[in-house]
Structures are given as structure tokens and as C-alpha cells.
Write a structure and sequence with these properties.
304 residues, alpha/beta, 6-stranded mixed β-sheet, 29% helix, 23% strand
């Protein structure tokens, strides 16, 4: 069984019951869950003071042992406040031997991309404690893909995507769209060319999703990739004012503007059903009329 070490660098976990349910489920499976005292921590909307949340990240440099899974309690907002004070070099050094398997998504994306940009450290964009492991009903697809990612040095995810036929290889990167856009012009955005950029978001109207994607386009980032993969965009329901403008029509518009293939429909993001992706791993994307697949390799895995 594995050891889970909890971190809470972002928002206060408003659903304490879900977090405790997540802990109980992991322990029932025989896993150890360390650092549980951070779950109720709070200052304003954040999961504790700046110093406490920063310590969650920097203390990872001193975390000993192999097969350690670092799991974010939840997202929200707050990680952006910590970027200047994170011990990036110390974290990279810790990853050189018995690397930590660091997993989270949403607001945590900025820390994941910072590690990738500064030291090419691979982390996992996947489930978190409260929202996923602590859901009222545990999603079997999500759990299966989580362990497949952490246990297999090469694995594939498959889905029925939409977009032009393509086959390409490149470094996988991305995560939450709003967080990726927030890093433009900073040292923490990876300067990846010929990569495969995967994006998702929640509670953003289709025009806001479009605006952020256009910012990536205008910054020259989209056209430097081999392909763009779109995950779930929960809560992107259009209204009467949109008069037919929707997430689907927005994607069609973007395809007419961008020179590289855009493949949509991946179960990835803030839904209960989500794959786990190693951010920074090598990826092969294949999309045909029969479906889509991402084959991933080069990421750290649990040792037998």
C-alpha cells in the first residue's frame, strides 16, 4: 500500500465532511494518510496563513521515503501568492531520488507548471482529496485511471474525441486554463515548443474560455504546439443572450484561427469522471474517425 501526504496550498476546504470521507476511503484501502491536521486549517478564504500554506510545499523537500503520493486537499485560490517563495531548487533536488508523486489540479496548476518550467519536474494533474476521493460516490473510472498513471511507466488513455485526424508526439503540459493564462509573462510558464497542450476549466462562460484561448493564441503559444487537447469545461452553459453561441461553436471558431489540431472531448478536469495526466511526460496523440488516444511515458511511478 502507499503513503499519502496531504497538502493545502490553496483555498479552505469548505466541505470538511468530503475531505474526511476521502481520508477514510484511502485508509480503508490500506493506505497511510499523513498530515491530516491541515484539513480544517483556515484563514479567510484560504487553507491557513501564507506561511502555513507555503510550508506545505517547501516541507516536501524534507519528506523522506519512497512511494510517497502528495495529494492536494482541494483547489480554489491561493497558490499564486506563494510562487515567489517556493523552494523550487530544493523540490527539484528532492525529486532526483525516489521522486514524490505529486497530484492535484485546478489552482494547483500554477505550482505544477512552475516545477516544470524551472526544473522539468513531472507532476500529475488528477484527482484531489475532497472533490474526488471524498465524493458522495467514488468514481471507478477516476480511481482506475489514477492508479494506472501512478503504477505504469507507459500507459494510454482513450476517448471518443472530436477534431481533425492527426498523429503527433511531444511533451504534455497544461492543466487549468485560467491558471495557465495567469502565468503568461512570468518565469513559471513553461516555454514548451512542439508540445501537446491539454486544457480544462470550470464555471467559465464559453466567451471567457474563448478570451483566454485567444490570449494564448495572441501570445504565440498555441501555434507553437503540435496539438491542443480540450478536456471538460464544467459550468460553461450558454444563455438566451448567446443566441446559438456555445462551447461547440466557440471551438469551431478557434479551429479556424489556430494552425494546429484541436481535439476535444477528453474526460479531464473538474468532473467526477477524470483521467490522470503526467504533466511534463512524453506523449503520443492519435486521433482518427475511430477515436482518440494519448500514450504517456517518462513519468515517475510507484515502485513495486
Amino acid at each position: 500500500m502507499s503513503q499519502f501526504h496531504l497538502i493545502a496550498p490553496s483555498g479552505y476546504c469548505i466541505n470538511q465532511e468530503a475531505a474526511q470521507r476521502g481520508v477514510a476511503r484511502l485508509m480503508e484501502e490500506g493506505h497511510q494518510v499523513q498530515n491530516q491536521t491541515i484539513i480544517p486549517r483556515r484563514q479567510q478564504r484560504f487553507a491557513g496563513t501564507e506561511a502555513a500554506r507555503l510550508n506545505d510545499i517547501n516541507a516536501l523537500t524534507r519528506l523522506s521515503g519512497a512511494n510517497q503520493i502528495v495529494l492536494a486537499v482541494r483547489g480554489g485560490y491561493g497558490a499564486s501568492r506563494l510562487l515567489e517563495q517556493i523552494d523550487w531548487q530544493g523540490l527539484a533536488k528532492r525529486q532526483q531520488q525516489n521522486p514524490l508523486l505529486i497530484c492535484g489540479h485546478s489552482d494547483f496548476t500554477v505550482i505544477q507548471l512552475g516545477l516544470l518550467a524551472l526544473h522539468n519536474v513531472i507532476t500529475f494533474s488528477g484527482p484531489m482529496l475532497a472533490g474526488n476521493f471524498g465524493a458522495p460516490e467514488l468514481n471507478a473510472f477516476t480511481v482506475d485511471h489514477f492508479w494506472r498513471a501512478l503504477r505504469n511507466s507507459t500507459y494510454s488513455v482513450e476517448w471518443q474525441g472530436d477534431g481533425p485526424q492527426c498523429e503527433c508526439e511531444g511533451q504534455l503540459w497544461g492543466g487549468n486554463l485560467a491558471m495557465v493564462v495567469s502565468l503568461i509573462g512570468t518565469p513559471w510558464l513553461p516555454a514548451i515548443e512542439n508540445g501537446i497542450l491539454v486544457l480544462e476549466d470550470i464555471n467559465e462562460h464559453p466567451f471567457r474560455v474563448e478570451r483566454m484561448l485567444l490570449q494564448l493564441l495572441h501570445a504565440g503559444i498555441l501555434d507553437r504546439q503540435r496539438a491542443i487537447v480540450l478536456g471538460s469545461f464544467s459550468g460553461a452553459t450558454p444563455n438566451d443572450y448567446d443566441a446559438g453561441y456555445s462551447l461547440a461553436t466557440m471551438i469551431d471558431y478557434l479551429r479556424a484561427r489556430v494552425s494546429v489540431p484541436i481535439i476535444s472531448g477528453l474526460d479531464f478536469g473538474h468532473e467526477q469522471q477524470t483521467v490522470t495526466l503526467p504533466i511534463g511526460a512524453q506523449a503520443t496523440l492519435v486521433h482518427t474517425s475511430r477515436g482518440s488516444s494519448l500514450t504517456l511515458s517518462g513519468h515517475p511511478v510507484l515502485k513495486a
